[in-house]
Amino acid sequence: MTSPWEYAPALESRELADLKPNYRMFVGGEFVDGGGQPIKTINPATEEILAEVASADTGDVDRAVAAARRAYDEVWSKLPGKERAKYLFRIARLIQERSRELAVLETLDNGKPIKEARDVDVPTAAAHFFHHAGWADKLDYAGFGPNPKSLGVAAQVIPWNFPLLMLAWKIAPALACGNTVVLKPAETTPLSALVFADICAQAGLPAGVVNIVSGAGDVGAALVGHPGADKVAFTGSTEVGKQIQRTVAGSGKKLTLELGGKAANIVFDDAPLDQTVEGIVNGIFFNQGQVCCAGSRLLVQESVAEELLEKLRARVSTLRVGDPLDKNTDVGAINSAEQLTKITELADGAAAEGAERWSSPCELPERGFFFAPTVFSEVHQSMRIAREEIFGPVLSVLTFRTPDEAIAKANNTPYGLSAGVWSEKGSRILWAAQKLRAGVVWANTFNRFDPTAPFGGYRESGFGREGGRAGLEAYLDV
Ligand code: NAP
Ligand code: MG
């Protein structure tokens, strides 16, 4: 179907990212070369090399942990909360001041649409620093008793799907509670973390309070296994999370894990269908579905399934897939060739297992890693697509007849990170929310994030909370 209305390109300027040919690590307040083989980070929408980035070796990890220890012992642990707060406020304001630069940089390195980097990732990252700045001098009133103590040096490892936002989720509470940090960004998206290091320097943060070591998985392994770390925080795959839990076991280090998910998004027959369709789209196509809490399993009451599917396909057909720097783009690039292969394999497998495949008839760019938004119907619980995290723009649709059946199917997963409920009845929503085994349950919305709301999972989705009062516990000796 050709539309009589065509969009003209509305490109954000890539100059705003102020790309440098080389990025160095940040250790002890200085930008330094790493001992490892430098990595080349690419733009997944074009496959061009963006920059060369230093990579740490084990000696660099040692130096970063030692710098964090010194900063903890000599400066940060001695500062009163209201002084720490000033730095956090300053960082939050600098993120706002440099928000266009950060948004374009994030879009180039990750492949996400500029409107998401600009309207979600960067402002929410700033909000996390503002929120935790407010806590820094009020920890006595957080419900953990008077004068709760910090832990020391936090070793933090983050994934590629929300590079700057995951950094903010990790660093803001750590600093607010009086800890110092060594953080490793993902290999495919290191740039915003290294610009954040520049923001720390600009804010006059004392040397060694924040250290960023870039590199691949081995750098992460060296960091989380380092005897000098008092706390380990990880967001990423369940597989690596389990490995880290084994490494940390018996060491006395405090551990929080934010892992994968296979969230159910449940639509009851009394839900307002047009609004629900918007929520389903946001649940699975936001950030190309590369979201741990993505609503990848749609459970629809049988009596409205056909009508809903029709509306959904019509809506998904209008999503604009393409250049992430275009302000009209809804769905950008998949982060890496590897992730694209994984998505393609799982989707092909679902078709082979008998699920009915429908993909948006959009045109995909010739270069770069793109995947058309896809909806599988006739999905059964035994299929891989209904059980495994796909981490891509692919929705599985299952049906149910009774509310009890919906809950049973929703909870039939080893994960337990998030869920959604769509219904007009408040009583039904509250009933469902109590029965769902998920850390976050959204009602008549999906994928909403706020620094005041704790986020985290059950079972194979990990443990510990980030955000809100509950999130402070992960960084305090309580
Ligand atoms: P991952 O392999 O678990 O990577 C996450 C982070 O851990 C990256 O910084 C990674 O470094 C690092 N890492 C890798 N191996 C490590 C090890 N042995 N010890 C310590 N750190 C290590 O996950 P991914 O490659 O980003 O994504 C794979 C899958 O993870 C996705 O398909 C999705 O299912 C899940 N995921 C979940 C979330 C979430 O928020 N819960 C987020 C992203 C991904 P490198 O980048 O250098 O490998
Ligand atoms: Mg990249």
From TrEMBL:
Q: Which UniProt keywords apply?
A: Oxidoreductase
Molecular function in Gene Ontology: oxidoreductase activity, acting on the aldehyde or oxo group of donors, NAD or NADP as acceptor
Q: A Pfam family for this UniProt protein?
A: Aldedh
Residues at the active site: 258
Domain annotation Aldehyde dehydrogenase: ranges: 32-477
InterPro entries for the chain? Ald_DH/histidinol_DH (IPR016161), Ald_DH_C (IPR016163), Ald_DH_CS_CYS (IPR016160), Ald_DH_CS_GLU (IPR029510), Ald_DH_N (IPR016162), Aldehyde_DH_dom (IPR015590)
UniProt keyword Oxidoreductase, yes or no: yes
Q: Which PROSITE patterns match?
A: ALDEHYDE_DEHYDR_CYS (PS00070), ALDEHYDE_DEHYDR_GLU (PS00687)
Describe the family membership recorded for this protein in Swiss-Prot or TrEMBL.
Answer: Belongs to the aldehyde dehydrogenase family.
Q: What is this protein called?
A: Aldehyde dehydrogenase (NAD+)
Source organism of this protein record:
Saccharopolyspora dendranthemae
